[in-house]
Amino acid sequence: MRPSTRELERSAMKYTVSMEIALPRERVAQLLADPEQMPKWLRGLVLHEPLSGVHGHVGTKSRVVMRTGQQEFEGTETITRREPVDLHGIPKESVVLFEREIAGKGMWSVARERLTEAGPETTLWVSENEYRFSGLMMRLVGLLMPGAFRKQSLQHMQDFKAFAEHGKDVREANG
Hints:
Blueprint (H helix, E strand, L loop, with lengths): L4 H6 L2 E9 L3 H9 L4 H4 L3 E8 L8 E8 L2 E13 L12 E9 L2 E13 L2 E12 L2 H9 L1 H21 L3 H4 L2
Antiparallel strand pairs: 1-7, 2-3, 3-4, 4-5, 5-6, 6-7
């Protein structure tokens, strides 16, 4: 039996994390959108393969497999927003927006990423995240460990920052 929308909303968890990156906004947007770069900064990424559409563009669905310790999560990612579509020559006053939904067993999430200029060579990355859980086990995880989700989001942002600013590859740190 599928959970009702009301049940999913009751089990919702929301948080926002942010970080400054010492690179121009356009370069940050290009690196975030480049599928070739993802394994270098997205710790735990096992697989990210488009099932339909063009990677990173609105409407694209991808199979995503992530591993944290001994736990593996598989889901389907759908890109729901990318503005502007062309990440070259972005007007100075524009805000870059990326949004994606991920659905997997016992969980649905949405991430709303916003990139703004914090200075001439600095980008502010704000990430709004929402998770909804179904099934007893996933609800318990969401209830008992909400900080783990926020901590993981911050880790991904820190890894991206280290990659973008200094070329550090998370795969090299893991051996």
